[in-house]
Amino acid sequence: MNQSSYNPFLTAQQQFNKAAEQLELDQATRDFLRAPMREYHFSIPVRMDDGEIRVFRGFRVLHNDARGPGKGGIRFHPMETIDTIRALAMWMTWKCAAVDIPLGGSMGGVIVDPHDLSPPEQERLCRGWVRQIAKNIGPLADAPAPDIMTSGQHMLWMLDEYETILGAKYPGFITGKPVNMGGSLGRIEAAGYGIVITIREALKELKIQLNQTRASFQGFGSVARHAVQLYQQIGGVVTCVSTWNQRDGQSYAYRKLDGINYKDLVAVTDHFGEIDKNKAADLGYECLPGEAWIEQDVEILVPAAIENQITLNNVNKISPSVKIIAEGANGPTSLEADKVIYDRDILIIPDLLANAGGVSVSYFEQVQSNMNYYWQKDEVLGKLDLYLTSAYVNASDFAISENMSMRDAVYLIAVDRVAQACHDRGWV
Ligand code: NAD
User: Fold this and answer.
1) N or C: which end of the chain has fewer CB within 10 A?
2) Cβ(147) to ligand 1 under 6 A?
């Protein structure tokens, strides 16, 4: 299946159906949880720098808020679809439940390539998005956060527009804000550090020393980059990272077998996570076709770019040396490839757990913002470690006791918690 015909919402629904079957959920609960509770589609007119108006399509989907206010990113992407947003909202519901934070799941986005917009045009787009949806979201209803190609600056423009409309300060309206403007210390590192915390726990179980391992990453954006940094800091070696090259529409993998130099590579990466091919070559990196990231002779693979990247087309290229796949991205593995990986006895740390560090610290940021009282970085990262380690151990114990994959275990735990909340509220 090629990327354009892939529908992540169908994947998310199939994953849910499987969990619903195993949990023997009643029909009403299945019908209720299989679709979003609310969704908004809107047009955003934006005045461009040349005076012309362009109209962008925006979305916000709230999948479920039985356990607490919605939480979920806003993605700017030229190929954005409502079904991708629906899938991400549903996965967010399960993710918050998997790490046991009192939030529901939502997601938003705009069909746009921000590379094509100047900063003032991006600002007007952010403000326009908020103007269309301000009455339906908010700190007690549904709070956005950054995702692919959105940054702290975008979040701040959105917050400013929301506060202008409401006429008061609501720092808990949005998370992923710049640190000096109500953001949480540790938020920027959180999703990446969370991946490494779950890898650390998985390696303990497999009785493998982290400093004896190598890893290959897909992506070098805000999630992957911080995972690379922490993993190398505590003794691992990253031999390969791949990124998307916007100019020629291809991806490339950059390899150094004795380990990439994190600082050097960051210096030649733009703020969309794209490594400059020529500058990387000057630094001595081998430049391979993008798909090469999956074929590397390493113990750990980290897909941390986009959905549907490990499929039947490439799953058999995974080296026999691989012991762990930690899903940094949301939905990077197709259902069919997942089965092959399970049969090969490779431990997949599912996205609902591996990248839950982002939403966990988003939750901490919201708590701090709502109190207007901010914690030290060590406190934030300490709590992150506590939440993720305990979610990992809980899921792993369940997987072992029920003889099932980590993905199935995390799904059963999460869906059960959400279904229970819906029952307790008397909804279904
Ligand atoms: P980002 O835009 O900062 O980075 C994306 C990276 O992926 C870039 O390096 C880009 O070049 C690369 N990429 C895109 N397509 C590629 C391809 N085909 N081949 C190779 N590289 C490719 O995005 P991000 O915030 O790091 O998010 C990455 C993933 O993690 C997404 O699935 C997102 O939903 C998920 N996620 C993000 C957060 C967060 O807090 N930002 C939290 C949890 C999960």
Assistant:
1) N
2) yes
Decide whether any atom of ligand 1 lies within 6 Å of the 191 Cβ.
Answer: yes
pTM for the model = 0.95
Contact yes or no for 347/187 (Cβ under 8 A): no
Nearest CA to ligand 1 atom 39: 147
Distance set, CA 242 to CA 83, 288, 393, 410 (Å)? 26, 9, 30, 28
Predicted pLDDT at 1: 47
Domain ranges of the chain: 39-177, 188-354
CATH of domain 188-354: 3.40.50.720
Q: How far apart, in whole angstroms, are the C-alpha atoms of residue 348 and residue 271?
A: 29
Is there a contact between 402 and 213 (Cβ–Cβ < 8 Å)? no
The 10s digit of each residue's pLDDT in 99-115 is 999 999 999 999 999 99
* Closest atom, ligand 1, to C-alpha of 244: 11
> In terms of Cα–Cα distance, which of 421, 365, 341, 411 is closest to 95?
411
- Among candidates 62, 203, 46, 34, which has minimal Cα distance to 120? 46
Whether ligand 1 lies within 6 angstroms of the CB of 84 is answered as no
**Cα atoms in the Cβ-side hemisphere of radius 13 Å centred on 100:** 13
Cα 349 versus chain centre, distance: 14
| Within this chain, domains 39-177 and 188-354 share the same CATH topology | yes
CATH number for the domain whose boundaries are 39-177: 3.40.50.10860
CA 307 to ligand 1 centroid distance, Å: 9
Rounded to the nearest whole angstrom, what is the distance from the C-alpha of residue 32 to the centroid of ligand 1?
A: 30
The neighbour count for residue 367, using CB atoms within 10 Å, is 15
Q: What is the pLDDT of residues 137-165, one digit of tens each?
A: 999 999 999 999 999 999 999 999 999 99
- Which one of 3, 74, 243, 269 would you pick to mutate in the ligand 1 pocket, going by the greatest count of ligand atoms within 8 A of its CB? 243
Distance (angstroms) between ligand 1 centre and the Cα of 164 equals 31
Rounded to whole angstroms, how far apart are CA atoms 38 and 142?
11
Torsion angles phi and psi, residue 17, rounded to 5 = -55, -40
